[in-house]
Each structure stands twice: as C-alpha cells, then as structure tokens.
Amino acid sequence: MNFFESEIVQEEAKQLFADYQNLMKLGSDYGKFDREGKKMFIGNMEELMDRYKVFMKRFELSEDFQAKVTVEQLRTQLGQFGITPEQMFDQMNMTLEKMKAQLDQPSS
C-alpha cells in the first residue's frame, strides 16, 4: 500500500493540521492569557511538535517512494530559508523555552 493511502497516515495528518490551525488561531490571543493559560498553550505546542516529529520520522523511515520525495521536498523548501528540518525544530524549541522563561518574569 502507498504510504499516503494509509488511513492512519491520513488521519494523523488531518489531525495534526487541524490541531496546528486551532493552536495558531488561539495563539493570536496569547498576550491576553493569564499565566496558567500561557503554560497550557506552551504545553500544547510542545505536544504538537512531538507528534509532528514522530509523523515526520515515519516519512523518513518509510521505503515508499512518495514518502521519500515528500521528505526531500521539505528539506529543499526549508533549505531555501537556509535551515534543515532539525534546525526548524530546534528553533521552535528555543522559542518555546523563551516563552517559558518569560512566564517567570514579572510583568512590566
């Protein structure tokens, strides 16, 4: 079976995309959240990133030609911005770590 024909892959992709969209929509009000709301948002972002890493690892480990092409397309697209997928995840993690650190700083 083709990698993209798998119901599991399709469902996880659909769920990841929907969850990402919902978090981005919610994140537009991040500045209005109280401390606990910000912690919850950051936790949800971390969980989403972990799920995305697992999803991408499935692509990388697959023997399916289309999955391999997809990984290469992602690498090419990110390469146009001068980064690798690994650097993208590192940058996302750094951003979330900064957001966590800001939670413990008194507001001005």
Description:
- This is DUF1825 domain-containing protein.
- It comes from Prochlorococcus marinus (strain MIT 9211).
- InterPro entries: DUF1825.
- It holds the Pfam family DUF1825.
- The chain has four helices and no strands.
- The protein has one domain.
- The chain is mainly alpha-helical and 108 residues long.
- Helix 1 packs antiparallel against helix 2 (35-61) and helix 2 (35-61) packs antiparallel against helix 4.
- It has helices spanning 7-27, 35-61, 65-79, 85-103.
- Ranges where pLDDT stays below 50 over 5 or more residues in a row are none
Mean pLDDT: 91
Query: Total number of helical segments?
Result: 4
What order do the helices and strands follow? HHHH
Question: What's a concise summary of this model?
Answer:
With 108 residues, the chain is an all-alpha fold. Helix content is 76%, strand content 0%.
Question: How do the strands and helices of this protein lay out in sequence?
Answer:
Layout: H1 7-27, H2 35-61, H3 65-79, H4 85-103
Helix pairs in contact: 1-2, 2-4
